[in-house]
Amino acid sequence: MRFITLLLMGLLTVVVGASEKVSLQRVPDGGLQPQVVADGKGAVHLLYYKGEAAAGDIYYAKSSDDGKTFGTAIQVNSDAKSAMAIGNIRGAHLALGKAGRIHVAWMGSASAPQKGPKDAAAMLYTRMNDAGTAFEPQRNVIQQVYGLDGGGTVAADAQGNVFVLWHGGDPRKEIDRRVLVAKSSDEGKTFLKEVSPFAQNTGACGCCGMAATVDSKGNVYVLYRSASGGTRDMYLIVSRDKGATFQGGKVSEWRVATCPMSTANFYDSGTSMLATWENDRQVYYCRIDAANPQPGKPVVSPGEGGNRKFPVAAENKGETLLVWTEGMAWQQGGNVAWQVFDKDGKPTMDRGTQRGVPVWSLVAVWPRADGGFTILY
């Protein structure tokens, strides 16, 4: 009777088909916008945001026990309040590079001392120092094309190449905006001037996020939202020559006139790449074969939810976990929801939802050594 009463009052979260396979944790220290990379050796690397939404700080913490506990957090940004959380899509991203070095990039807040022409926002970057004890002073990697609005991302490989990406240009003319990449060949010590990596004129959705990563073969993957002719489509571009050239195309169409403020994400399973994105209140993932970087058939989260956004995914022992948020909007928190899929992309009974995603936050996930998954929200 108490269960029914709580359910009717809306005070009890119902988890359908709950199992020990999926566990949930809050971001340490009451943080927001978790970004996670698990290195396959039991270590989980975490970024999170703290402070006022318009001007706050980024922290890095490491777990050596598969995410059960995290060590003392280190502040990433050297200039206080130089990051932001507004809009969910302008926060920090991290990548593991050569010898496990941590690389971080984020959109500078109005409080960041680094600025472009006419006080344009900076694309800030830092890396862990050689001793692994602190982060180096932050730097602006934009040298030519300002107009950053939707945040950027960072990717790195085991050979010392680092790629910081964003989209720039006049925010009022999205068809003229371009994805841009600044490359470093010396582990982030220096960066070349940014270039547009993709020849096709797709535009770029001014206030949408993007994602990038590098697989074990050195292929560079970029997922971003275009803005052309009343559409906001998702494009996947891939480089097989360490960022010298990129090829790709559209993976999802969405005819919508306004910016959906969306994110994208990648997960490297070792044999293939998982890409996630949203489209018209639904979330999707697809598999990309590393041997032939072509996207497979998209898999959609089953059923209907309340404005599904900000998806992430992970794979473990042949199963895929897709995680997303529901009910979130401008200045409004929501729920975390998830679905496990089998090796054929079919949904299993492991699915559920949980209240409590804070305003301006995101969700993250990693695979555990026991075959399960942990969701951070």
Protein architecture, described:
By secondary structure, this protein is mostly beta strands. It has one domain (14-376): 6 Propeller (Neuraminidase). It is 2% helix and 41% strand. The protein has one helix and 26 strands. The strands form seven sheets. Strands 2-3-4-5 form a four-stranded antiparallel β-sheet, with no helix packed on it. Strands 6-7-8-9 form a four-stranded antiparallel β-sheet, with no helix packed on it. A hairpin with a 2-residue loop joins β3 and β4. It is globular. 51% of the residues are buried. The model is unreliable at 1-18 (pLDDT under 50).
Brief account:
This protein has 377 residues and is an all-beta fold. The protein has one helix at residues 2-9, and strands at residues 22-25, 32-38, 44-52, 55-63, 74-75, 93-96, 102-107, 123-127, 139-140, 152-156, 162-168, 178-184, 211-214, 220-225, 234-239, 247-252, 265-268, 272-279, 282-289, 299-300, 309-316, 319-326, 334-341, 347-357, 364-367, 373-376.
